[in-house]
Amino acid sequence: MSKHALTIAIIGRPNVGKSTLFNRLVGRRLALVDDTPGVTRDRRAGIGRLADLTFHIVDTAGLEEGDSESLAGRMRLQTESALNGATMVLFMVDARSGITPMDRHFASWLRVQKIPVVLVANKAEGTRGMEGAYEAYSLGFGDPVALSAEHAEGLGDLYESITETARILGVDPRAEIEEEKPDEDETLDGPQEGDLDYDFEDPEEEPEFTDDRPLRLAVVGRPNAGKSTLINHLVGEERLITGPEAGLTRDSISVDWDYDDIPVRLFDTAGLRRRARVQEKLEKLSVADTLRAVRFAEVVVLMVDADRGVDKQDIKIASLVVNEGRALVIALNKWDTVDDRLSAQRAVNDVLTRSLPQLKGVTTVPISALTGQGTDRIMPSVLAAYELWNSRIRTAEFNRWLSAVTEAHPPPAVQGRATRMRYGAQIKSRPPTFTIFTNHPRGVPDSYMRYLENEMRRDFSLAGVPLRLYLRASKNPYVDGRKTKKQRLTERNNRR
């Protein structure tokens, strides 16, 4: 058998359970699942496992008839693209609904595609389901695999069908597939116990991109801001469904891409509306998926409609990115439709400076995702933000800076006692995180912390990058070591 990995595409009409089976095979809830037909619109890939079998698995949109310009037609084109890269197809039907005219239509279409087909009758649990599974014989694809993806029934029969089809194709379904290992969860709530166990030596490692570790870039924004259009333009193909309809993207779809020999994993996300407007369960799932993509990204591109300018929802999204500690680049989309560009740019900068002072100096890139204007500046801006996000400052340099800024503007006293910023160091990057040891950590006001952050951004050229600055009580050098004067006097009197 060939050692090439097996690639399986799951296709079928809407709401037959394709995403449920996809999630079952990859072992995680990657694809959104809901009773609403047509939840999946873009194809999603993952690594599937079934006993000792390992394969690439692709979830696709439901097959529907429609003009190529319609949403149904564009979804079908995405499914056809997935079919072109597959070595095997799982054609899924709903055993409870029985075989429909649409199932027969797409079965006829599959017969001319010259690709092996495994017929899967899903929702086959119970007497009614088994009757529909027997009806699937009429499609002419041989013995259907009766299973229940939701209840994990019938997977043994699916295993045998995949193994037999792979044997005929000469493909080894047991070939190992390398999968990127997820990072350990990063703590976003400040330093925890053990974070400060360092010896004040500066790490010399530089951020690197490797085949095993691509740069993770999420594109976020309001609905219909042009997120999918931008990703399609960057990768050079119609990888994602686009159109004038708002809210086309529902799942957070990852797309692997190379930019100047740098591996990049792009995440297209669902549009984020105001919380009060999010009522349906499906949209709530989409929003949760978007927030998850932001947490696992390293750099986030916020798409802003230049015609409408930056509004409260854009500010909330940007604030979310900053709170998660991710590097941010703002793309002003539809720039080709703006008449007074100078005024528009000034208005954006004013709103950002006033509403998010911690993002003062963040990079804004005017673009047109539809025409490609300015999109060549996106990735250089992303890489620059990523480099700042990985910044490390030497401990000696940081303490010289700390001494200078506290001498120029001392922190306020607490109950008549002077507050002293004794020393500090960077404890980690991504984002740059620092701890300062002081005698009154709880007495330092937020306004003084903002002063330190602003000075740090200016002096260390960290504009537009989230910073984490924490205060910690410095230890009394006479405790747990040398004895205090009172202790020495007491011991001397006792000796007398």
TrEMBL record:
<feature type="compositionally biased region" description="Acidic residues">
    <location>
        <begin position="177"/>
        <end position="209"/>
    </location>
</feature>
<dbReference type="GO" id="GO:0042254">
    <property type="term" value="P:ribosome biogenesis"/>
</dbReference>
<dbReference type="InterPro" id="IPR032859">
    <property type="entry name" value="KH_dom-like"/>
</dbReference>
<feature type="binding site">
    <location>
        <begin position="59"/>
        <end position="63"/>
    </location>
    <ligand>
        <name>GTP 1</name>
    </ligand>
</feature>
<keyword id="KW-0677">Repeat</keyword>
<comment type="function">
    <text>GTPase that plays an essential role in the late steps of ribosome biogenesis.</text>
</comment>
<feature type="binding site">
    <location>
        <begin position="221"/>
        <end position="228"/>
    </location>
    <ligand>
        <name>GTP 2</name>
    </ligand>
</feature>
<feature type="binding site">
    <location>
        <begin position="12"/>
        <end position="19"/>
    </location>
    <ligand>
        <name>GTP 1</name>
    </ligand>
</feature>
<comment type="similarity">
    <text>Belongs to the TRAFAC class TrmE-Era-EngA-EngB-Septin-like GTPase superfamily. EngA (Der) GTPase family.</text>
</comment>
<feature type="binding site">
    <location>
        <begin position="122"/>
        <end position="125"/>
    </location>
    <ligand>
        <name>GTP 1</name>
    </ligand>
</feature>
<dbReference type="Pfam" id="PF14714">
    <property type="entry name" value="KH_dom-like"/>
</dbReference>
<comment type="subunit">
    <text>Associates with the 50S ribosomal subunit.</text>
</comment>
<dbReference type="InterPro" id="IPR027417">
    <property type="entry name" value="P-loop_NTPase"/>
</dbReference>
<feature type="domain" description="EngA-type G">
    <location>
        <begin position="215"/>
        <end position="390"/>
    </location>
</feature>
<dbReference type="InterPro" id="IPR016484">
    <property type="entry name" value="GTPase_Der"/>
</dbReference>
<keyword id="KW-0547">Nucleotide-binding</keyword>
<dbReference type="Pfam" id="PF01926">
    <property type="entry name" value="MMR_HSR1"/>
</dbReference>
<dbReference type="InterPro" id="IPR006073">
    <property type="entry name" value="GTP-bd"/>
</dbReference>
<keyword id="KW-0690">Ribosome biogenesis</keyword>
<dbReference type="InterPro" id="IPR005225">
    <property type="entry name" value="Small_GTP-bd"/>
</dbReference>
<feature type="binding site">
    <location>
        <begin position="268"/>
        <end position="272"/>
    </location>
    <ligand>
        <name>GTP 2</name>
    </ligand>
</feature>
<dbReference type="InterPro" id="IPR031166">
    <property type="entry name" value="G_ENGA"/>
</dbReference>
<feature type="domain" description="EngA-type G">
    <location>
        <begin position="6"/>
        <end position="170"/>
    </location>
</feature>
<dbReference type="InterPro" id="IPR015946">
    <property type="entry name" value="KH_dom-like_a/b"/>
</dbReference>
<feature type="region of interest" description="Disordered">
    <location>
        <begin position="172"/>
        <end position="211"/>
    </location>
</feature>
<protein>
    <recommendedName>
        <fullName>GTPase Der</fullName>
    </recommendedName>
</protein>
<dbReference type="GO" id="GO:0005525">
    <property type="term" value="F:GTP binding"/>
</dbReference>
<feature type="binding site">
    <location>
        <begin position="333"/>
        <end position="336"/>
    </location>
    <ligand>
        <name>GTP 2</name>
    </ligand>
</feature>
<keyword id="KW-0342">GTP-binding</keyword>
